[in-house]
Amino acid sequence: MEAYVLTVGVEEEYFLVHPETRAVEPAGPRVLARAAADLGDAVSGEFTEYQIEVKTAPCVTSTEVHRELTRLRAAVARAAAAEGLRVCPSGTPVLGGADPVVVGDHPRYQTSVDLFRSMMDDYAINALHVHVHLPDRELAALVGNHLRPWLPLLVEMSANSPFHGGRDSGYASWRSVIRVRFPCLGPPPYVDSFADYERTARAMATAGAMPFGELPFWDVRPHPTLPTLEVRCMDVPADAADSAALAAIVRALVVTAAARVRAGDPGPRAGGELLRSTYWYATRDGWPGLGTDAVTGDVLPAPERGRRLLAHVGPALDAHGDRQVVADFLGRLERHGSGAHRQRAAAGRPGGLAAVVDDLVGAAPEDGR
Question: What local confidence, expressed as pLDDT, does residue 369 receive?
Answer without folding.
Answer: 63
